[in-house]
Design brief:
two-stranded antiparallel sheet, 60% helix
Length: 272
């Protein structure tokens, strides 16, 4: 865990911000290349970028504040809600916010919504792969305690979020590192990168506009729900302690993706 990348005078640059920015730029660049295949100018993708940034940050931060208000914000000064460079974005909130921002831009420019959704979908998975490395460097989104014999279990240093939770539970001493935990950030990053490769492959073979985006919704929700099983950072679980908030949201995301697959119009194929 190395939260701070470097300092330039009074400016502190965090690895979380660097990874999120790298993921966003990589996503835009790969999406611009796919745009050409759909007959859309790559410049349109880059013009969409600010709307994705603003919507994604706003949505991700709002959902994070709502989810962790009592733990991180209730007792802190109000400006703490704006310190996003220190981490604290919920992906599903960012996805919803970025989608709303994109829809506003596409409506204004009269661009095809589902065609653009397919162009962007693989890049969202790629951006997530970068972003989760930022989570690892920041120490958030950590996993639950695992067996010491698990070869890829990781330990966080004294003062990290994982250590704080274990110390409050009486599991570690004041000068100990954390107990080994599942590297859920790495699980998520690897799975998202593999998912990006699959979606990029599917994009070249799609049968109708919106197909890739629909598959993204279903696939990401399934992958996220799997990784959530190993998460150890949630203060509250639901359904008798077996479901995280993200798993509950994933149910709705999966249903939405399935509905889109059935409801989106297919091109008419004429017999010759």
């Amino acid at each position: 865990m190395h939260d701070i990348a470097f300092k330039l005078g009074p400016l502190t640059v965090h690895w979380y911000g660097i990874c999120v920015a790298a993921g966003f730029l990589a996503g835009l660049w790969t999406a611009s290349r796919r745009a050409r295949r759909e007959g859309i100018s790559p410049e349109r993708v880059f013009d969409l970028g600010p709307w994705l940034i603003l919507g994604g940050i706003a949505g991700g931060r709002i959902l994070y504040i709502v989810s962790y208000w009592n733990e991180e914000f209730a007792a802190n000064p109000f400006p703490a809600v704006f310190k996003i460079w220190q981490g604290g974005l919920v992906f599903y909130g960012g996805l919803i916010g970025a989608t709303l921002g994109a829809m506003y831009y596409l409506h204004r420019k009269n661009l095809p919504v589902w065609k653009m959704a397919d162009i962007l979908a693989p890049s969202v998975a790629l951006g997530s792969a970068f972003g989760r490395i930022g989570c690892l460097m920041h120490g958030c989104c950590f996993g639950r305690v695992c067996s010491a014999s698990l070869p890829w279990g990781i330990q966080f240093p004294n003062g990290s979020p994982a250590w704080d939770k274990q110390y409050d539970s009486g599991l570690v001493g004041a000068h100990d590192p954390s107990l080994p935990v599942h590297p859920t950030e790495i699980y998520d990053s690897v799975l998202n990168f593999l998912f990006y490769l699959f979606l990029a492959w599917l994009f070249r073979r799609k049968k109708f506009d919106g197909q890739v985006f629909s598959v993204y919704l279903i696939g990401y929700a399934i992958l996220r729900s799997f990784v959530e099983y190993f998460r150890g950072d949630y203060p509250v679980r639901y359904l008798g302690g077996v479901a995280t908030p993200a798993q509950l949201v994933s149910i709705g995301i999966i249903l939405g993706g399935v509905l889109l697959l059935f409801l989106l119009p297919r091109p008419v194929v004429k017999n010759t």
